[in-house]
Amino acid sequence: MGEFKSVGKNVTRVDIRAKVTGRAKYAGDIDMPGMVYGKIIRCLEYAHAKVKSIDFSEAKKMPGVIKTLGPEDVTAKTYNQSVIDLMASEQEAKWMGDIEEQNIFTKHVKFYGDGIGAIIAETEEQAERAAAKVKVEYEALPVYLTPEQSSAPDAIQFVEGKPGNRAFQLPAEMFPNNCLGWGDVDEAFKEADVVVEDRFYTPKQKQCQMEPNNYIALYDDEGRLNCWSSCQMPKLAHVKLARLFEMPMSRVKFNQTVVGGGFGARLGLVMEPEVCALAIAVPGRPVKLLQPREEDWLSSPSRHPSDYWMKMGFKKDGTPVAIDAISKNFKGGYYL
Q: Nearest CA to 299 among 262, 255, 332?
């Protein structure tokens, strides 16, 4: 057997030279002729509300503004940002039900920072200034900060067909009371010499990857949709964008740029649907959508807060004999 080239040796990362010399191009570094800039209008008044009206009249008068977009100006087809629906088996998909519940721009705000519209302008600064001129009228709705609040009998239903705002309900004939388990847990605890019981809570966590999320899209003169982003699952992005915009996959091209960290923040779609919708609105002109750190914190996927109750039984020698647990994950406004 010949000598190993890599095993047991120090191997230089294939991308490190380009990164340390500044030659690596992240999405924010890419410029194209005729590029315009987008700015998402986000609800920064309420965490839960209905959009009664959006007034773009003053924004349209601002210098450099090319187009304004509201919920009715983009596809009404819904989607899911995460990878879970593509990974699920046919049986698991039946248990989850319809999880494609997110609109590109919504009339039902489900979290603080939810996107309700957009501005397209010649420069980033012009887009931001025009966005500040948009007037929105809301109808405030109750805010639910815990699973108990959102599952209360009088809580507003976020998605039809998901009672109690549960992400999914396991089939009762297989999992009574939505529980998964083996054996008789009460009998097992009778064999335990030591029983430990406690409750644990993990807060919401933001990944804080080094590179903020940035995107580019171009709907070219031949009707092809091109998207550039640092999504870490490019095939997922390709499939989901084709589905969302009801285009053949051969007419959609996804280009993965250099990834400046992820830690879970880039495993699914983030603002790829928005930038593609903007590009379709201005055919032939590439659209860049930059997401400052504050906006990244507001609108990109995070690690969900969790509430655990756990009871464990052990023999004196440390052998576990029983575990009983309840886990509640607060998924937020959408199934992610």
A: 332
189-237: pLDDT as tens digits: 999 999 999 999 999 999 999 999 999 999 999 999 999 999 999 999 9
Architecture of domain 25-141+211-299: Alpha-Beta Complex (3.90)
Per-domain boundaries in the chain: 25-141+211-299
Query: For residue 158, what pLDDT is reported?
Result: 86
Q: Across the strands, what pairs with 140? A: 49
| CB 216, CB 275: distance < 8 Å | yes
The DSSP string of 122-161 is SSHHHHHHHHTT-EEEEEE-----SHHHHTSTTSPPSSTT
Q: How many CB atoms lie within 10 A of CB 98?
A: 14
Report the predicted TM-score, pTM, of the whole model to 2 decimal places.
0.91
Instruction: Report how far residue 107's alpha carbon sits from residue 49's, in angstroms, rounded to the nearest whole number.
Output: 8
Longest dimension (CA), the chain: 76
Give the mean pLDDT of 293-301.
Answer: 91
**Torsion angle defined by CA atoms of residues 260, 265, 267 and 269, in that order, rounded to the nearest 10 degrees:** -100
φ, ψ (nearest 5 deg) of residue 126: -65, -40
How many angstroms separate the CA atoms of 246 and 74, rounded?
12
Instruction: With CA atoms as reference, report the closest residue to 130 among 41, 216, 215, 53.
Output: 41
In DSSP terms, which residues pair with 198 in a beta bridge?
A: 310
Cα separation, 242 vs 225, in Å, equals 9
Distance between CA atoms of 52 and 216, rounded to whole angstroms?
Answer: 30
Residue 94 phi/psi, 5-degree rounding, is -65, -40
Helix or strand holding residue 164 (H, E): none
E strand or H helix at 136, and its extent?
strand 135-140
